[in-house]
Task: inverse folding
């Protein structure tokens, strides 16, 4: 398959500085994510896109490719788009560097869906788990149509209702994306965040303004994004439960 995985890794995260290098069960988080990706594709097709020499040195020592990108990238997807210009593959899979509990089968599922729906951007989703708070602004919630296309994504609780139903099942974004070069180039050439993207602080919303449809892919594994230092213990607990 003409596919590469790009993992964006910014050192100065606004919510958690140095996050890619935090250790999860003794191994840097960026390497844990890369190790998962290496179960899907050969290492030669995995790239860490970063603006940090600290990160590049660590991933290089571990045998992974890195691509240096601008410190001025607006989002992780802009960083992936910049890196993709140096990659020959037609399909680019964006795996977030702060999801250390994703599973290889989910990355593979996004790849297969991107091949099946080449004109769509592909994005993962799953149910919000019992250990997660649906009200958290750190969890983007999604609403889909009957074709599993994204209608909207928000940090607020959606869909809303006049009635409070404690049994309501909410869906969350899982940040594994599938793009082609043309989609990434359109995103990158926009050079500024869209109004909704800026308001929600969710980059995939820029594709709405570009009139590019987003196909949502149901992923099967439980996962947790490390957005703040308290999430490290949650991720470690999940990994210990899964692998012992």
Result:
């Amino acid at each position: 398959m003409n596919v590469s995985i790009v993992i964006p890794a910014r050192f100065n995260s606004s919510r958690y500085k140095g996050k890619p290098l935090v250790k999860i069960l003794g191994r840097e988080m960026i390497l844990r994510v890369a190790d998962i990706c290496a179960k899907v594709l050969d290492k030669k097709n995995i790239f860490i896109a970063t603006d940090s020499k600290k990160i590049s040195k660590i991933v290089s020592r571990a045998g992974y490719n890195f691509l240096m990108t601008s410190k001025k990238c607006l989002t992780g997807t802009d960083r992936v788009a910049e890196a993709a210009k140096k990659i020959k593959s037609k399909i680019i899979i964006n795996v977030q560097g702060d999801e250390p509990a994703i599973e290889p089968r989910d990355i593979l599922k996004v790849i297969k869906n991107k091949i099946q729906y080449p004109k769509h951007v592909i994005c993962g989703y799953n149910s919000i788990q019992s250990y997660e708070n649906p009200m958290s602004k750190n969890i983007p919630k999604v609403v889909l149509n009957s074709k599993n296309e994204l209608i909207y994504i928000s940090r607020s609780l959606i869909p809303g209702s006049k009635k409070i139903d404690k049994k309501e099942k909410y869906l969350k974004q899982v940040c594994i994306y599938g793009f082609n070069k043309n989609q990434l180039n359109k995103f990158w050439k926009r050079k500024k965040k869209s109004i909704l993207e800026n308001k929600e602080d969710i980059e995939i919303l820029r594709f709405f303004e570009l009139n590019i449809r987003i196909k949502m892919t149901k992923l099967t594994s439980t996962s947790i994004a490390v957005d703040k230092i308290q999430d490290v213990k949650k991720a470690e607990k999940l990994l210990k439960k899964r692998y012992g």
